[in-house]
Amino acid sequence: MVTTTRPPVVCLCGSTRFRSEFDAVNRRLTLAGHIVLAPGVFGHAEGVTIPESDKVALDALHLDKIDLADAVFVVNPGGYIGASTAAEIDYATRLGKRIGYLEPITANSPDGKNKQ
Questions:
Q1: Strand 35-37 and strand 71-75: pairing?
Q2: Which of 17, 39, 86, 104 is the most buried (most CB within 10 A)?
């Protein structure tokens, strides 16, 4: 029997307003040999209004990506973590996923939720 080891799978989470930061993190992790799962729609960054039914479907799809991942990496420029990202972090934590952050989590983060 041949045993193969696949590269680690990382799911990127964060506000879709940070498209360029997502792209940079995706590039860096891909070059480091990771399989990267990321949002495919960046409505905030593109200034596009997404119908609520589509947003619900996209949120569920992103949770499926977290299910597939070995770890989650939070794209949080300035320490920003909004409500949707906080819920994804909670979900990943409950699944026992490793979680990393672009920027450290501090009590002074803009949304006031980033206290650890």
A1: unpaired
A2: 39
Nearest Cα residue to 114 out of 66, 82, 73: 82
By the 8 A CB rule, do 77 and 108 touch?
A: no
pTM: 0.87
Q: Quick: pLDDT tens for 23-74.
A: 999 999 999 999 999 999 998 888 888 999 999 999 999 999 999 999 999 9
Contact of 68 with 42, CB cutoff 8 Å: no
DSSP E strand boundaries for the chain: 9-14, 35-37, 71-75, 98-101
